[in-house]
Every structure is written in C-alpha cells, then in structure tokens.
Write a structure and sequence with these properties.
By secondary structure, the protein is of the alpha+beta class. It contains 36 helices and 84 strands.
Length: about 1750
C-alpha cells in the first residue's frame, strides 16, 4: 500500500505521528540489515610448493571454475580432485618453480581453456593445450623464448579484443601474441618502447589508462609509457619514480575520485613499501604525481602497526562491493631462500579497503590469512559463483583459495570487527624482537603465549602443563602407561657442588580426565642436579643427573623414587652444562641411546670394563643394566635430540653443525674442525640451518598421528627463532635428503624456547618450552640477571583434521588413541606392533619386555609368520630383545617378500650372535637385494661382522651403486675399512689384479686403516694422487710419511717435487703435511725431505730479497672484531672475484714495483679500449681449479689488443701457462691470437705460440739456453675479432716478476655477507691526495644507506675521522680519490668497517690504494712462507738470509715480528719468542720494536726484561695476555713474568687467566706456586660487566670523534688533583706526559679499571687509626713522625705514627673503581681525545 493512501483521511497530527512511526520502522529495518562484513574462508588445496602463481578458469567445461596452480588444476566446486596437466614434482622452498605465472585462455579456439605457464624470468614460456581429458599430460608448445620482467601481465593492451602477454624482451617492453591462424607456432613479440636494457629480472609492470584517453598505457618503475593513436608507433615515455627499486604489479585507478587515474605501486618487491601516487594536472595540462605511503618499512608509520616486506604480487579489485577498488597484497615467502629483508616475518595476506573521506583517501587493512602469503601472481575473482571476488594464491607456502563470504551485521558489530589502530606491531614474528640475545619484551602468561602461535590448517595447540606444575623443562619421555616424564631444573645453568643437594626434579604428568591438560603431577625424584636425559624403565626411570647416569627406582610403589643406583659415571659436565647427556632414546635393538653434549670430556665404562672416551658432541649407547657402553657415532658439536625411523635409522639434531643428521654407526660428523677418521664425514642430509645454531629436539612425523602428508616430516625445535622447523625426508636410494619446508609452528612470543620435542602415544607432538628471556650460553653471560628460572610450559600439538583442507580427506585415522598400553592384554598389545604410529610401536616393544617372558614369546610365535610385514618386522625385533630369535627366523626374514622385514632382518644380523657361514650368506643376498634400504642394512651388518669373502662383493657393490646414494656408499667404505683392518686380508686383496676404480677406492680407505701396509700401498699408487685437490693430496702424503719406512720417503719427495714443480705454494702445503706425519711417527727428518724444504725456503727468501728493494715500506693490517659480534673470526679476505680485478697496467696493479705491462691498440682498432683483465676463471692442466691469468676474455671475445711487458733478462728456460683459442674447433688457426717473446733491441720475434685451443690453461715451456741473458719482452696479442673462440689468457710465468704483484682486493664478501668486522691498517704518512678502488653495498639498493659499511681515514693520534665513504652500491670496483692536502704529512690509518649483518647487499671490497705499501702485497706472503719453512725445519743454513730479510725495514714491523718468531725457534726460549711479539704490537714504541728484533738476532734472552717492562706498562689487557701467555710456556719466561707482576709492571690478573694459569701450573716450582697464590690473594673478582663497559666505551670512542680542548678542561677538573701533564696538575699519581703512547685500548682500561695494572710505587695503602677511622690513599714521604696519604681527590691526610693501629699495603689503586660512572660517554670521549694527543717521540 502506498503511504499517501495509507494517510488519506487522517488528521494532520495523526499523519505526522504516522510518518514518524514509519520513519522509525524503516530505520529499524535498516539497522537490522546493517553493513556487510566480509571474511574469507581459507581452503588449503595443497601445502606443498609447486608454483609462485595461480589462476582460475573452467578447465573441464562443467560450469564450475577450477583452480590452476603449477602443473596441476584442481576441479571445482569441491577442489578435492587434483589433475596433473604437466610433469609434477614437489619443490624445495630454497629453489624455484617453472610456474611463476599461470594464465588461462583458449589459445587455439577449440572451445577448451588452455594454460600459459611463465617460468623463471628470462626463460621460455609455454602454453599447454587442453586435451579435454582429466588424466594425462597435455601437449606443450613453446610460446616465447624470453619472458622478461617479474610481473608480466596477460591483458588486452592493444584493444583488439584478444589478451596479449605484456613483458620485456630484447631490452624493451612489449607484448607477445600468437598468430590466430597458427596458434601452435612461436608467438610474435612487438616492442612498444625502445631497448633500454630491460630484462628478465626487471621489476615493476602495469597496464592502465593513465591519461584518460581510452587507451591503455604501460606503467613501470621509472615512469609510464603513453600509447599513441597509431598502433605501429612506440609508446611515449613520461618519467616518474613510481618505485625506489623494482616493484610488482602496478595499477592506474582513480583512488581519490577526482576524475583522473592515480598510480599504485610497491616500492620494493624484495623490501618494503606500498604507495599510491596522486595524479595532479596543472593548468597547462602538465601531469605530475605526488607519492603517498600506504605502508612502509616502519610499523610506527602505520596507524595499524603494519609493515609487510616482499609484496611481490598485488591485485586491485572491489572486495566489498562498495564501488571502490581495494588493494589485495601480502608477503612473498622465502623468495630468495631467506636472503631477503624480513624473510622470517609471517607470510600474511591482506586486503586494504579503499576509503574516501573529506580528509582524503585512506586504506584500512583487513587480514585475510597469516599463513599463505603471496607468490609473484595474485588472481582475484569470483571462483565460488556467489558474486563475490575470491583470492587465489600460489606460493612457496602452497596453493590456497580464499573464499569471500559476506554476512549482514549491525553497525556496532561492524565497528567491533574493524581493524584496530595500535601503536605496537601488528605481527611480531621474525622482527627485531627476535634478534636480540636478551629479549626486550615482557613475559606473557600461558594464555597470551598460546594466542601468538600459528600452525597449519587442521592442527590444534593446547597447554599441557605450565608453572607452577613444572619448572624449566629439559627433556620429555612417555612411558607405556601414557604418562609424561619431565626433567625439570632450577639450577641450570650453574650446577650445585657434588657435595650438595640440588633443587631439580623429575616429575610425572598425567591427564586423568582426558581434557588435554595434565591434572596430576607427581614429583618422582628430587635433589637432582640439572637432570637431562631420561627414560622410564622398570619401576622407575634411567636418567642423567650430574655427574652420573642413574637408575632411580620406586621399590615400594608410592610413586616416588626411594632407591638410586649408579649405572654409569662420572660423565663430563665441568666445561658446559647446556648439552651434557640428553635425549635418552630406546632403540629397536634394545640399547639405550643418548647424546653427549658440547665441550665436555667423558671417559666411562660399563661393568664389563669396556671403556669409551667422548669428547664434545657424540652419540653413544648403553645397556640398561650398566654392563656395557659403546660409542655409536663420532662428532657433531652439541647434539640435542634423537629419533629413529621405521627402518631403525637414527637421526640427531645438532646445535652447531646440521639441524638434522643421519647417524651411521662408526661414522664421523663435522665437529668444529675436528678431523674425521680418514673416510671423510658422513654425507650431510641438508645444507640449510634454519637461520639458527640452536636446534633442539627432533621428532619424525611417522611417530605422530599427523597423517600421510606429514609422515615423512622431521620436526625440530629452534630456540633462537622461536619456531618449530619442518623438513621432509626425501629418499635417493637408501640415502636421505632433508627438503626444507615452511616452519611448522611460528611463535609471536620471543620468550618461546622449544628445547625438546617428543611424540606421545596419543599421536600428539609435545613441546618442552624453556620459556626464557635468554637462551644463549656464550652470547650472554651466565650470570645475567635476566635469565628466568621459574617459568616453563609444555605444549601439546595434535592434528584434528579440517574440512578446509582439500589435500586430505579428513582427520588422520588408523592411529592409536593413546591410553595405557600397560593395561592391554598381550594379544592386544601385540596388535600395537603394527600401529601406524611409530611411537606406539616403540612403547609396545618396551611394554612387552615387562610381561611374562614365556607367555610373550608363545604369543609372538603364534602370530608368525603373519600377513602384515610391518607387524612381522617388529615381532622379530621383540623376539630379538627377549633373546628368543632363532636361525630359522632370520632365514625366513631375509627372504620375506616385504622389504621392511628384510631390512630388519639384516639389522638383526648385525646384532645377533650366530656361528657359521649362514650370516655371510644372508648378507651376500642382501647385497643383491633390489631394495636399496636392504642393501644398506646388509652392508652395515657386514661392517659389524667382517668375513673375508665379503671383501670382493663389497668392492663390486661400491662400483655398481648410484653416486646419489651417498649414505650407502659411505656405509660400504666403513664396512671395507673394518674388513681391511685385518692385515692378512689387506695383503691378499692388494696382491690381486685390481681395476683402476677398485684401486682408487682402496687408496681412499687407506687413510682410515692407519698401518704401514696402507702407507706402502699409497706410496705404490702416488701417480693416482696428482689430480686430487691439494688438501686431499696432503692428507695422503701425511699418512704415508707417518707409516712408511724412511728409505721410502725419497719417493714421496720425488713425486711431490716433480709433479708440482711449478707450484711452490702447493709444495709448501705438502711439506706441512709431511712434517705432521713425521712428527706423529716421531721420526728424524730424512735428508731428502730436508733438502726439499731447504730448496723451497731458499727460493722464497731469495725472491723476497730481490723484490723488497723495489718496495716501499709495507703497511700491516689488523683485525678488530665488531661490537655486535665480538667473537667472530676475521671476515676480511683477499678476494679473486672477476669484477674485483683492477685493469692490468693501471697504477694500482703496478703498485709493488714488479715488471710493468702496457697496453697497445691492435692495428685497425684505434678506438678499442684495453680488453686485458686479471682473471681467475680458468683452471690449469695440473689440476688447479683456478689460476691468475691476464685474459682478453672478460671484455668480450670480439675485443682486440696487445699487452706488452717491460723488458727483462732471459733465463735458460722460459715457461708459462696459457688458455684460449684462435679459431673454431676443427678449423685452421687464424694466426691472429698468440704470445711471443721479442728481443728488446731489434724487436725480433724469438719465440711464438698460439693459444692451446683449450679453456683449461696448458703448460708451455721454451728452451732459451741459446739466448740466455738477452734483454727481451713478452707480447700478448689478441687480433681475432670474431665473437667466439677468439680469446687468449696467459699467466703463472716462471719468472715471477712477470706475474702481477697486486693481489685481489680485501673483501668481506667471501666469508659471507652476514659476517662483520673491522680491518685496520698500520700507520702511514698521508699524502696530498689519497685514492683507492672500492666495490660493494651497505643496504638493499632501494633502501637508504645503512651507515654500517664504510671506509674511513683516521688520525693516528686523536683517532678523529678525517674522511669517510660508503660503498658505491656496485659489484664492480670504482675509483675514489680524496683531496687530503690540508692534512698531508699527518700520521693516519685506514679502517674498513663492515657492520651490516644482512644476508644480501651487505659487503664491500677495497684495494689498489695510491699509497705504496698499503695495498696487499705478495712480498708478505712470500717472505712469511720462506721464514716458516726455515723455522719449522730448523734450516740453519738459511739463518743469514732470514736475518738479512728481518733487518729490511721495508717489510714493516708486523712481518718482521713474524719472521723474528721463526728465527727465535732456533733457540727455544720463551723470552725470545715473547720478544718476537713486541714488533707486532701497535702500542709498542719503535725503539722497543727495534731492540726486541736486535735481541732475537743476537740471541740475548737474558736482556728481554729491558724491552718487555716498558711495553707491558703501556699494553692493553689483550696485549698483556699475549705477552704473558708466551712467557708462561717455559721456566725462564715464567720467572720473568712473575717478576714483572710483582713489580706492578704487569697486571696481577694475568696469573688468573685460564690459559696462562694452566701453563703456570705445569712449569712453576713449588716456591713459584706459593708466590702466584700470594699475588692473587687480594685480587678482586673479575667483572664480566666491567669488560662489557670497557668494550662499549672503546667502541663509543671509535664510532665518534672526541674534542681535545674540552678534554683538557675535563682533565684539569677531575685528573689534575693527582696527575700531572707538563706544568698542569700534581705528582701524587703517575705523570701522564706521553700517555697517548699507550694507545686507546690501554688508556680505556686504565681509566675504567684502575686496579688492572698498578705500579708498585702507586699502590694504595689503608690506615686504621686507634679511634677506628679508615683512610686509603697513596703513601707519601713524611718526616718520620707521621704517615701522609693522598686520597683519590688529591687531599693530603696526615696521621701521627702513634695514632696508627694498623697499616695494610694493597695491590689496588687509590683511584675509585667506579670512576667510569662519573663520566658520560661524551665526556670520556673528550678526555680520551686529549690524553691520546699526549704523545712522546
């Protein structure tokens, strides 16, 4: 009814009331309708990595839209069926997919939708022709050979109604399209821009109508290209900086509603930033753009605390139907294997609602998902058919469909649902909050922590237990009753003394009401001392508690241990407590396996007397009754976590090598540089470390109820990143590789510390959370007060299934439901042996041992043979544990049709004692098994029970095994080693005729045999070693030198000198190996070896002496650790990267005075630039992988030119190495490329040779005896201008002066871009101009400079910064020259500072300094090598040569000191070797350095004190440590050290430094020991906090510039009351004239720690008067009637002698120890600047 009709006849008032009621009625309806709230339902189509992009279309023509991702299409509307249209393989997230983009279109007009797949940028794109069938691969057609740009678009750019592929090719933007009449032919590419170098990895591309003319324009990072009216014309460019660096998809859209299109662009697809650019049109029609940030790199810039990195895919669509287009984007996950900015942050997906208001445009971020992220393509559209745009994602996280759902809500509900404005970060995982060793956040409650976790779809995490139920959990273990046993600690990391009772416990947790949380907690044992590993057993638990492995028993059944039985011990714990004995795991074989932790040393035996020694990381095993202990594997650093798989293979988690390792019995694993056994290390399963060196615990997916998708997973706790990592175990034959997957659990709480993982019998994963602000042992002092000791949690993660997962049908089924296995009757218990959950099978085995033996064996045998192979395998295992396994069982098991049974049969063979030939027969059958796991199990059985007739089959099996089956190959090598330890078998085998492959295999195994026969065998096969790497050759020669007879050493020498006669460096390395072998044998050096060393050393020294007169004084360099990584090793290396080579012939390359080279253009090429470069790309025919050549290749093969050396005198023979070509292979030489030798006077060509026609350098040697002594020069001629096989490279001349003397630049790149450190030169005199070459970066190219990487020039006196420059943001060297005329003549030094820890764009390289002697020089290395040989081999004949070299001041003090150290070895005396350190100390005076060198040359050790005393007085703590440590190695040195300490010339604290104290305890007499104890009696405790302050204040000074004038005023105020400088101050304390000579380190120590170095004359005295008053100060001369003290403020205090009750001398300074607290950082910097300026000559 119409309202007018309704109101007709109503009086006016009634009408008004009616209108009002109607209005209210309509308003109520409106309120009830409310706004639409949009949310997204995430469908997981796959959580595996197949693609970086996805799209949708109706592929099968059924009317439902399907999703295309990678090689699959997922059939809608249910998306449960997946069809492969192309070959498919699951990819490693560290790699890349061949499906970066997928576009659906009917390309051949057959009515079926085809798929265009764009691969890696710059590669071929293919389209796949829809076959119309759901099964089978589609036919593939090449579309375009090169798709450039990382965001190509498939859109109708031209307006012809057909979409084109818009991309880059040939350096230009353009579009590619198929010919309508020939769709299967290659597509035609049409450029729309000029070629400007756009390429495959160009970032940023968009298509949109920017100028509103109805034609689509092209957007790119640097502007937009306007499409003209004529299709054939190139687009017109308009420059605008739309992105700081490469963006992603770009859009033109009218965001602000003013009628013109604005631009949307990501600022850096691998960094941060999303912006929109408002288009402004001026009165004259000129267009400009004003940038507006939407989100930046700083969460604080966002009202919502949001910052997203790597937004590599963007879409623009109206999500909520309000008529405005919204932005959809997110974080690309793991784009460059974690090397990008923000790589660890959550892979979020957002849509940004576009909101227009009177105040402008804003974008409201709505979270879609936090575990999908984006790839490189983001497609949004209506997939479900409900009229709302859905989001399709293909990324390294998997393939996802986000279904858009809208529901009507009230205005209030909508307001509550809207994103909240916040100051804190919206997402914390992976941010800086997780990078600090001491977390800056506050602790969360368990509920708050729970809310911070993210997990894959279908998983649920619950709190199982927390404080106060438990303390800090360390290890977890389940018993067969389903109870969780937990080792808890309060003591960690400090153990209580063995005589005391600890506060730690083992508790038993039970969930009695099945609500998922522990409700019954029993303290089974207390009084423990940092318990770790534990295994519930019998009526108690076997556990480790310092210092033993105990069996704690509950004999009376009250739930508490009442009997403690020591099984093994003591075990090491003294050096470190964060590993010790952990992860007790019962193997299928019945042994109890355990990890032995970092740094500790253990010698332990069982009751059978068999003793093992464990040093640092190892895995060992023990019998449960204490009878025997065995080492299982060797190496690793700090293993913390064990697990085994269904085959019985063991895996460990290690904190410092690999997060996951396959353990092979008797194998060796890497362990902080520790050697292997000669066979090499067990091949690693993985090369990634999950961004951490703190991996704890490992659980295999097969032990959980997580379902088939996760059954091959390995989970590991990461206590640094606060995550649980996941890898998939991929098999290659019997070998395993860990494929990295996205992290399983990510925490947003930086205190989350998952130190241990355990699978429960209920199929859940239990996580021990050592909830703490600090976790590191070495990064943060153990005494740090921030360490939490009371909070601890245990989390339970279970898989509940989810209808939103379309990659699995439902929740995992077929798994046990948990419960009490101990209550099951034997028959049901036996059924658990076939459980799909490995953890239940293992517990069932344990429980069977508790049952009556006879009945258990009877029931087991009743089930044999059974139809289930898995059950049968574990039934045999149970019989083996019970000692009831019979020969017939093994005979049947070794031929069983199922491989799992045969594997366990072979494993049982290794463990079971069986007499006769049967075991060998079964093992031989295993060698031939078709299943590789059976073959490896058989080989491992052979290793355990050698038999001579297995030798030849083992050799044959090795040759037939695939090279990718690395773990089988290594197992064969172990088995062969074990067999060949039998000398008789070895002799008989090697007496046979062996193939070359067999012989090489035996040679490689000899290193592990360690006997004379093996050494002689290597000696007989020396010719086979020449092609091996140098280090490998050295290992063989070391071995031979140790085990062969002296008379055989001549063969070793002859081989080495002849084979490597042109490689002195390699000869020197080989000599080191030989010397080690001889020392290990304790043999006298054979004359042949000594003669070789003599000749080599003489050559080095003579070369050095011949070069050095042409050298300026060489400047040494020192490494200084960066404050953020004080323990990091020096990252600076000489780098040989191609683009780090300076042009030969330049001033930099000629520095050092060797023979110069000059460039001459080739005739006819007047404009050709010099093509000759230093190159290390080529190897040599003698096996070297890289040699330094002068090459014309890097500049392009068509380049030409002549390179000519300076003249030199021709020797009897002239040799060099050459590579290159002068014609295509098989064609006649062109005669245009060659090297020739010419007479200097006549120019006559004496010798000439063409390139060898080989990319590997070949040796060329000319006999020039007939022309010896003539003055000649070398010419390298490249005259061949063709584009291929037209280059020449020559180098490694025998005449060393022809080789370039300028070595590669100093670079921080080779050690890894995350490494940091400072490299500081010695002092040199600054010239008027100072130049150098520099390359590198200090931040991502689109980000502002970080200010962390730079080179700076500093004043040697004040340390003030004179000049500073950042890297040039280029990989190539750039030359920089500073005008330093105002500072010329000053003493200065250079600092190269790399403080950038990012994984990319965080390195730099510097070299080619204009100051002679400052650049790296070969003279250092050559002289050092010669001296090392002289010292090491006691070559007294060369002592005069070494002395003459030592006296050459051109070397610089650093190298002279190193040479002197070698000279000192002729007269072993710690005083002389300590004097050799003095020249290397920057703070030592020049006179001290020269005198030290003189005393060493003359051998006057007795006069060392005269030099060491003044040096000690000015030495820093580090300098004093170096000197004292050397003195402490020998009695005469100890005597000198103690006298220096007693006199106050050296700090008393030196005697307590661990290394020095250890030396002193070994060499001091009883009287000296008493003296040491007396000196240390009053030593205050060392403060780690003070050391931190000292280091920080030094870095504060170095990072800024102090002001000497304010420093002088500060001196007058706070120092002059006691100290004097010139005429200023008083003489109560040491005079400070010349104090700057002490250097920065010592000065800071003297000020901040005045008690460290106190002269006897300035030690304080304490006086106690008879009235009880106490006065402390310096004792001054008085009149004999009174004592006069001067306190730290300079006040004199006089006390009559009669009033003195007690006088106590001290070793301390009267200066207050807290003096540092009275000065600010700026004040201390000024004071230091003044004091450092006080230098004496």
């Amino acid at each position: 009814m119409k309202l007018s009709v309704f109101l007709e006849g109503f009086p006016l008032k009634k009408a008004l009331v009616a209108v009002l009621l109607a209005f209210l009625f309509l308003q109520e309806i409106s309120l009830r309708a409310g706004p639409a709230l949009h949310s997204f339902k995430r469908l997981v189509l796959s959580d595996q990595f197949f693609s970086e992009g996805a799209c949708f279309a109706d592929i099968d023509g059924d009317g439902s839209r399907d999703v295309v991702s990678g090689p699959y299409w997922y059939a809608g509307p249910g998306f449960r069926q997946r069809h492969a249209y192309a070959p498919a393989a699951v990819l490693d997230i560290r790699g890349y997919s061949e499906f970066f983009f997928s576009f659906a279109h009917d390309f051949n007009s057959d009515g079926l939708v085809d798929i265009l797949a764009v691969a890696m940028p710059g590669r071929v794109a293919h389209w796949y022709e829809n076959s119309g069938r759901k099964d089978g691969h589609w036919k593939r057609h090449a579309a375009i050979d090169d798709v450039g740009n990382e965001s190509p678009a498939f859109v109708d750019l031209t307006g012809d109604g057909r979409p084109e592929l818009v991309c880059c090719r040939g350096g230009a933007f353009g579009y590619a399209e198929p010919a309508a009449e020939k769709p299967r032919a290659a597509w035609r590419f049409t450029p729309v821009t000029p070629a400007r170098g756009y390429g495959g990895f160009t970032h940023g591309l968009g298509v949109g109508d920017v100028d509103g003319d109805g034609r689509l324009d092209l957007l790119e990072t640097n502007g937009w290209w306007r499409q003209g009216e004529k299709p054939a014309d190139l687009f017109e460019f308009h420059p605008v900086r739309f992105a700081r660096s490469g963006g992603a998809q770009m859009f033109a859209y009218d965001f602000d509603g003013d009628g013109d299109n604005d631009v949307l662009s990501v600022q850096n697809a691998h960094g941060y930033g999303l912006s929109w650019f408002e288009q402004l049109v001026g009165p004259d029609g000129e267009r400009s753009f004003r940038g507006n940030s939407i989100i930046t790199s700083q969460p604080a810039d966002s009202a919502y605390g949001l910052s997203i990195s790597q937004m590599h895919a963007v879409a623009l669509v109206d999500i909520d139907g309000d008529g405005l287009l919204d932005i959809v984007t997110g974080k690309r996950f793991w784009a460059h294997a974690g090397g990008d900015t923000g790589s660890q942050q959550l892979p979020v997906l957002y849509w940004f609602k576009t909101i227009r208001s009177p105040s402008g445009v804003s974008f409201e971020p709505w979270l879609v998902d936090d575990r999908s992220g984006v790839g490189t393509q983001l497609v949004v559209g209506d997939v479900s058919g409900n009229g709302l745009p859905d989001i399709v994602v293909g990324s390294k996280m998997g393939t996802y469909l986000m279904l858009n759902e809208a529901r009507e809500v009230t205005a209030e509900q909508y307001r509550q649902a809207r994103p909240k404005r916040r100051r804190e970060m919206a997402h914390t995982p992976g941010t800086h909050l997780f990078s600090n060793h001491v977390r800056s956040t506050d602790p969360k409650t368990p509920a708050e922590e729970l809310s911070s976790f993210t997990l894959p779809e279908g998983f649920k995490i619950e709190l199982f237990a927390s404080e106060p139920q438990i303390d800090k959990p360390l290890n977890l273990a389940f018993d067969s009753r389903g109870r969780l046993w937990v080792s808890n600690t309060l003591e960690y990391p400090y153990p209580v003394g063995l005589e005391k009772k600890g506060r730690d416990t083992i508790r038993v947790l039970e969930d009695t009401d099945s609500d998922g949380r522990a409700d019954k907690v029993t303290t089974f044992a207390d009084g423990l001392n940092i318990p770790m590993g534990l295994y519930p057993y019998g009526d108690g638990v076997i556990c480790f508690s310092i210092p033993n492995i105990w069996y704690l028993r509950d004999t009376d059944g009250d739930g508490r241990a009442d009997l403690r039985q020591k099984l093994y011990g003591p075990l090491g714990y003294e050096r470190d407590t964060h590993g010790m004995c952990n992860s007790f795991t019962r193997g299928l074989d019945g042994w109890l396996y355990a990890c032995h932790g970092f740094n500790n040393i253990t010698e332990v035996a069982g009751t059978d007397g068999h003793r093992i020694r464990l040093r640092s990381g190892n895995v060992f095993r023990m019998r449960l009754d204490g009878s025997r202990v065995e080492r299982f594997s060797n190496g690793q650093v700090n293993p913390f976590g064990l697990a085994f798989d269904r085959f019985g293979d063991f895996f460990s988690a290690d904190c410092h090598t690999k997060p996951l390792s396959l353990l092979i019995q008797d194998g060796y694993h890497e362990s902080f540089g520790a050697p292997h056994d000669g066979l090499g290390f067990v091949p690693a399963m993985m090369n990634h470390n999950h961004g951490s060196t703190a991996i704890c615990g490992v659980v295999l997916g097969s032990s959980t109820a997580f379902g088939e998708l996760y059954s091959d997973s390995a989970f590991g706790g990461n206590v640094t990143t606060c995550r649980i990592n996941r890898n998939t175990l991929v098999r290659n034959g019997s070998s395993l590789r860990a494929r990295e997957e996205p992290d399983f659990l990510v925490s947003g709480d930086p205190w989350f510390r998952p130190v241990y993982l355990q699978a429960g019998p209920d199929g859940a994963l239990y996580v021990a959370d050592f909830y703490n602000k600090i976790i590191g042992h070495y990064e943060v002092p153990l005494t740090h007060p921030g360490r939490d000791r009371h909070r601890g949690r245990i989390w339970k993660i279970s898989y509940r299934g989810s209808d939103f997962r379309r990659d699995v049908r439902a929740a995992a089924s077929g798994y046990g439901a948990g419960g009490n296995l101990g209550e099951l009757p034997i028959k049901k218990l036996l059924g658990e042996l076939s459980s799909r959950q490995l953890a239940r099978r293992a517990l069932a085995l344990d429980e069977l041992e508790r049952r009556p033996v006879v009945e258990t064996i009877r029931e087991l045998r009743a089930g044999l043979p059974g139809e289930d192979g898995l059950w049968l395998a574990y039934a045999y295992r149970a019989l083996g544990r019970l000692g009831a396994l019979e020969d017939a069982d093994l005979a049947a098991a070794t031929v069983h049709p199922e491989a799992i049974v045969r594997v366990h049969a072979q494993r049982l063979l290794a463990e079971t004692l069986i007499e006769g030939d049967k075991p060998a027969d079964w093992i031989l059958a295993g060698f031939k098994d078709k299943d590789p796991m059976v073959r490896r199990a058989a080989v491992q059985a052979a290793a355990s029970r050698p038999a001579q007739r297995l030798l030849q089959p083992l050799l044959a099996l090795y040759q037939s095994t695939s090279k990718v089956d690395v773990h089988l190959l290594h197992s064969i090598r172990i088995a062969l080693r074990n067999h060949l330890r039998n000398d008789k078998w070895f002799r008989e085998l090697t007496a046979r005729e062996l193939s070359a492959q067999e012989s090489n295999l035996l040679i490689s195994i000899c290193l592990a045999l360690k006997n004379r026969g093996a050494g002689e065998y290597i000696l007989s096969r020396l010719d086979r070693l020449a092609s091996l790497p140098a280090e490998r050759i050295g290992e063989y020669l070391r071995f031979a030198s140790r085990y062969v007879a002296d008379e055989s050493m001549t063969r070793v020498v002859a081989f080495s000198r002849e084979k490597f006669r042109h490689d002195r460096k390699l000869q020197g390395e080989l000599l080191k190996f030989i010397r080690q072998g001889l020392q290990e044998r304790g043999a006298v050096v054979p004359q042949s070896v000594r003669n070789w060393a003599l000749a080599l050393a003489k050559g080095y020294l003579e070369t050095s002496i011949s070069v050095l007169p042409r050298q300026s004084r060489l400047v040494a360099w020192d490494y200084i650790p960066h404050p953020i990584a004080p323990r990091q090793e020096n990252p600076w290396r000489f780098s040989a990267r191609e683009n780090f080579r300076i042009l030969p012939g330049s001033a930099a390359s000629a520095a050092g005075g060797r023979l110069g080279w000059s460039y001459e253009r080739h005739p006819g090429k007047s404009r050709q630039q010099n093509p000759w470069r230093f190159s290390t790309r080529r190897g040599a025919g003698d096996g070297r992988k890289s040699i330094l050549l002068i090459s014309s290749f890097p500049a392009g093969e068509e380049s030409t030119g002549i390179f000519r050396s300076a003249s030199f005198k021709l020797p009897k023979s002239f040799g060099f190495w050459a590579a290159g070509h002068d014609a295509l292979p098989g064609r006649p030489l062109a005669g245009k490329n060659f090297i020739r030798l010419r007479d200097e006077g006549s120019g006559k060509v004496l010798r000439q040779a063409p390139p060898p026609g080989n990319d590997i350098a070949q040796r060329i040697e000319w006999d020039t005896a007939g022309e010896v002594g003539r003055s000649v020069f070398v010419e390298l001629v490249d005259g061949n201008a063709t584009e291929a096989f037209a280059w020449l490279a020559v180098g490694d001349f025998d005449l060393d002066d022809l080789n370039p003397s300028w070595e590669p630049v100093l670079s921080s790149y080779p050690a890894g871009e995350q490494k940091v450190g400072t490299y500081r030169s010695g002092v040199f005199v600054l010239p008027p101009k100072f130049g150098f070459w520099i390359a590198g970066h200090d931040q991502d190219p689109d980000e502002p400079l970080g200010g962390k990487n730079f080179i700076r020039l500093r004043d040697a006196l004040s340390h003030g910064v004179i000049r500073q420059a950042p890297p040039p943001r280029s990989d190539n060297l750039h030359y920089i020259e500073w005008d330093t005329s105002d500072e010329a003549g000053r003493g200065v030094y250079i600092e190269l500072v790399d403080g950038n820890t990012a994984a990319a764009f965080a390195w730099f390289a510097v070299g080619g300094f204009s100051v002679p002697g400052l650049s790296p020089s070969r003279a250092f290395g050559v002289a050092r090598k010669g001296a090392e040989l002289v010292g090491a081999w006691s070559l007294s004949e060369l002592r005069p040569l070494l002395v003459s070299l030592l006296e050459n001041k051109a070397l610089g003090y650093r190298l002279r000191g190193e040479l002197a150290a070698e000279l000192a070895r002729f007269r072993p005396d710690a005083r002389l070797s300590t004097l050799a350190i003095v020249p290397t100390l920057s703070f030592a005076s020049e006179s001290s350095k020269e005198e030290a060198l003189k005393l060493i040359v003359e051998g006057r050790a007795s006069q060392a004190r005269a030099v060491l005393e003044p040096v000690m007085k000015v030495a820093s703590a580090l300098g004093q440590h170096r000197l004292a440590r050397e003195l402490s190695t020998e009695p005469a040195g100890v005597e000198l050290l103690l006298s220096l300490v007693e006199a106050g010339q050296a700090g008393v604290g030196l005697l307590a430094v661990p290394g020095i104290a250890q030396n002193l305890s070994a060499v001091t007499s009883d009287q000296q020991k008493e003296m040491v104890a007396e000196l240390l009696a009053d030593l205050p405790p060392e403060s780690e906090r003070l050391e931190e302050i000292i280091e920080k204040r030094k870095q504060d000074y170095v990072s800024g510039t102090g002001r000497p004038v304010p420093g002088l005023e500060l001196f007058k105020k706070v120092c002059s009351p006691c100290h004097r400088v010139g005429k200023e101050g008083r003489d109560f304390a040491p005079n400070l004239d010349g104090v700057g000579n002490r250097g920065l380190d010592r000065l800071v120590e003297d000020i901040l720690d005045p008690n460290r170095n106190v002269d006897v004359a300035f030690r304080s005295t304490t006086i106690v008067t008879r009235k009880g008053q106490v006065h402390t100060g310096l004792l001054r001369p008085a009149d004999g009637q009174r004592l006069v003290l001067v306190d730290y403020q300079g006040r004199e205090i006089a006390v009559a002698l009669a009033d003195v009750a007690r006088r106590q001398p001290s070793k301390l300074s009267p200066m207050p120890a807290n003096f540092s607290e009275t000065l600010s950082a700026d004040q201390l910097r000024d004071l230091l600047s003044y004091l450092l300026s006080l230098r004496s000559s």
